[in-house]
Design brief:
- The protein is mainly beta.
- The protein has a single domain, classed as Maltoporin, Chain A.
- Helix content is 11%, strand content 47%.
- It is built from seven helices and 34 strands.
- The chain is globular and about 70 Å long.
- The N terminus is likely disordered.
- InterPro entries: RuvA_2-like.
Amino acid sequence: MKKLLFAYCCFLGLIAGAQDLPASTQQQLENLGDEELKDDALLQSLAFYKKHPLNLNEATAEDLQALRLLTALQTDAFLRYRAAFGKLIDIYELQAVPGFDVASIHKILPYVFTGPVLNAKENFLSRLKGGDQYLLFRLARTLEASKGYNASLPTHYLGDRNRLLTAYRYQYKTLLYYGAVADKDAGEQFFRGAQKLGFDFYSVHFFARNLGTVKSLALGDYVVNLGQGLTQWGSLAFGKSIDVLNTKRQSPVLLPYRSSGEFLFNRGAGITLGKKAWEATVFVSSKKFSGNIVSDSVERFTSFGTSGYYRTPSEIADRYKLTDFSVGGNLSFQNPGFKIGLNAVAHRFSLPLQKSAEPYNYFSFSGQQTFNASLDYGFTFRNAHFFGETAVDRLFNAATIHGVLISAAPNVDLSFLYRNLSFRYQSLFGNAFTDNSLPANEHGIYTGITIRPALGWQVAAYTDFYQFPFLKYRVSAPSSGWDYLLQLSYTPDKRTEIYLRCRTENKPLNDAGTTQVVSYPVDKIKQNLRLQFARQVRNDLLVKGRTEVIWFDGQSGQRQEGFLSFIEVAGSLSLKLKGNARLQYFETGGYDSRIYAYESDVPYSFSIPAFYDKGFRYYLNLSFAFTKNLTGWMRLAQTVYPGKATTGSGLDQISGNRKTEIKLEAQYGF
């Protein structure tokens, strides 16, 4: 029976391998609702593990966390199982580990293996050879010229339509990383004007692990992840999704920064020292950033420039005129099944931050220096894992978050999370498990459950109730909302995966349709119903499709409906040529009923467009292995809006009813 189940898991792993990301991870990315997300660290990590699978018999807790596919409960359960029963003989032994079901096993299967432990010592010099290294070049361009490229307009884009990215990356196991990234966005100048040095953004990183007492060493660009994100969190972090046990933030404190985003990272140096159960991290950073600078009675900036776009004179005027100097650290004690940590971080800006004088900004941070400190913990007791963090800012305003993950039965998992974040608490670089984008002004209770009633069946559901004690942007009074999700997944045979998802959420906003002098928040209820399937027709051909319907009730005559449906095929046309294609139709009543859909892309890139209005979309991705070391990719995507004279808005408006994007990428491995 175990052999049959193992074979079943292997085949499901092949299906997942035909996709660029597991289906549950794609849903997590869609829930972020960010079309401009540039953090490709997760894609880089999974691509490396797919080529060099992680040996579960020598994996540490940090290695399993870096995989980003296991919950904290599963990680602790696996480490305790391995400590009690020794090394795994074969991969199918994971079925005996508490908390591991068929779905979670097949999700990690393409990225792990079981093998003998190699005790050979590896000094630093030995890591400089034998690692993976490659040079990557990417060109992307919208074929139709938008309004912003009309040089006769008073305000227009100063550069061309090409988006360029080039990167060199070296990685030896998970022990040594170094490389450089250079990026230019469409509309930005290149080796002229404001960009005389060529690319708009340059990034260099060097990162080493496990050098004796030095557990981590970061030089150049890196990210800092502290506690549960109440003080600072730089890595990609997911929120609510069907992975109801993934409510805990998991990451080493220091990680290399290898992406092209221009805001959420540190630039300087960091080090983690470890001795027995103790670890201490110290980091220092000095980074230029952009912001909207105002000069009247006092020179200050009113907002952070996070987009990374420097295409027009006004955008260029704000480019990298500010400096963020930050220092911080972490002190932690960890034993098997238990960890406690103390975190602190301070920032000093070259100019004071003072946001616009709107009522919702009354308690927003104002000044030149900010400070946050916290205490976080995590421990496992029998079949339950408890975790949390309590933080304070410079004025001792508090925020706290606590949760528990429970394996109630072999086929039932539960999660609970409570959060209470004062509207006075301020953390400019935090990213916790909250409904708000920043961890402040929120009280909430989240509950989730996963049930596996029979082989091939899974039911996942969550409820989240939250309150916002103070005003928010477009919310002129205290408000409350809720979010429900129910998903039924079914794998009737080894070649088919189907899921049906229902989601309802209410996020109150000011009533734009009111005739009153003051606009008060009203319920904005959005309901989604989605059906998706994937069928492995044969070993080299995968077919999947989705149909989704949305209902939006904004009151005051703002009701909208939406519909989206696509069909996609992926396969190998030959040993060297592979590809996938999608055909999609969508129709919605407006932007409020928009629907996000994850799209496959070239390596280390993904797209999550928001679809609204009425139109068709198709894309084609092709890859061709020219030689053993050189591979090329091409992506062609087009959206057609029947009956429309223009698409887009502002400087991105295009004359005509279609928008066509082309992307070329080449990778040479050494």
